[in-house]
Amino acid sequence: MTNSRREIILRQAAGLFASRGVAATTVRQIADEAGVLSGSLYHHFASKEEIAQDIVIAYLDDLLSRYAKLRDSYLDPVAMLRSLVVVSLQVGGDHPHAVEIYQNEKVVLGTVPRHEHVTAVAAEIHQFWAEVITAGVTAAQLRSDVSTRLFHRLLRDAVWLSPRWYHPTKDYPPTRLADDLLAVFLDGFAA
Q1: Engineering a disulfide at 178: which of 7, 86, 139, 189 sits with its beta carbon 3.0 to 4.6 angstroms away?
Q2: Residue among 131, 135, 124, 52 at smallest CA distance from 95
Q3: Which residues constitute the domain of residue 62?
Q4: Is residue 148 part of a domain?
Q5: Residue 32 lies in a domain
Q6: What is the per-residue burial (b if ≥16 Cβ within 10 Å, else e) of 15-38?
Q7: Angle at 39 between CA 38 and CA 43, to 5 degrees
Q8: Domain contains 10
Q9: What is the distance between the alpha carbons of residues 154 and 120, in angstroms, rounded to a whole number?
Q10: How many domains does the chain have?
Q11: Cα separation of 13 and 189, whole Å?
C-alpha cells in the first residue's frame, strides 16, 4: 500500500510538531522530512498550522467514531469505562503524535479555519466520558463521594498522557495497560 504525498507530509510533520512544537518547526524542515520541495507543501496545505489542525482532526474524528461504536454496545458503566480506556489507547497508538500536538498547541489550533470542529469534537468526547462516569455513580459501581469531574480529569490525563511513555508490545498490549490503569483508579494501589 502506498502512502499519498499528503499522508507522508502529515506523518512527518506530526513527529516534528510533537518534538519541537509548531512554532519552532519550519516548512522547510517538514518538506525535507517528507522528501518534497517546500513550495509543494502549499499544494496540499495553506500553512503549517493547517497541517497541525489536520493531524489533530484525524485523531479526534477517529476517536469519536470508535466511541460511537461503543455507545451501541450496551455495556455496564465500568465495562464501558474499560472499553473507553482501551479504545483511547489504541487510537493514541494509531496517531502517536496527535495527542501531544493537541495538548501542547491549543493556542495554534484555536487560530486555524476549522477550530470550531476541533472544539466541538473534543466536547463530544468529553461528554461521552462524563456520561459513562455519571452512569457508573448512578449504578453504584463508582463512588459518589468523589467528584466525577476530578475522577474524569485524572483518568483522562493518565490515558491521554500515556502515548508519551507507553508503546504497546505483545507482552503489554493496550488492553493490559487499560486493566492496570483501571485497577489503580478503581481499586487503588495499596496491598
Answers
A1: 86
A2: 52
A3: 48-187
A4: yes
A5: no
A6: ebbbeeebeebebebbbebbebee
A7: 120
A8: no
A9: 22
A10: 1
A11: 39
For cell 450496551, name the residue.
Answer: 74
Cell readout for 35 is 522528501
List the helix and strand counts (H, then E) for the chain: 10, 0
Name the amino acid, one letter, at 67: Y
Given a contact cutoff of 8 angstroms between Cβ atoms, the answer to whether 57 and 119 are in contact is no
Q: Would you call 156 exposed, middle or buried from its count of C-beta atoms within 10 A (0-12, 13-18, 19+)?
A: middle
Distances (CA, A) of 6 to 14, 45, 87, 116, 181: 12, 9, 26, 23, 36
Does 15 fall in a domain? Answer: no
Angle at 100 between CA 86 and CA 9, to 5 degrees: 105
Q: Please give the Cα distance from 21 to 159 (Å, whole number).
A: 21
Can you tell me the distance from the alpha carbon of 65 to that of 161, in angstroms, rounded to the nearest whole number? 21
- List per-residue pLDDT tens for the chain, 191 residues long: 456 889 999 999 999 999 999 999 999 999 999 999 888 888 999 999 999 999 999 999 999 999 999 988 889 999 999 999 999 999 988 998 999 999 888 888 888 888 899 999 999 999 999 999 999 999 999 999 999 999 999 999 999 888 888 888 999 999 999 999 999 999 988 87
CATH of the domain at 92: 1.10.357.10
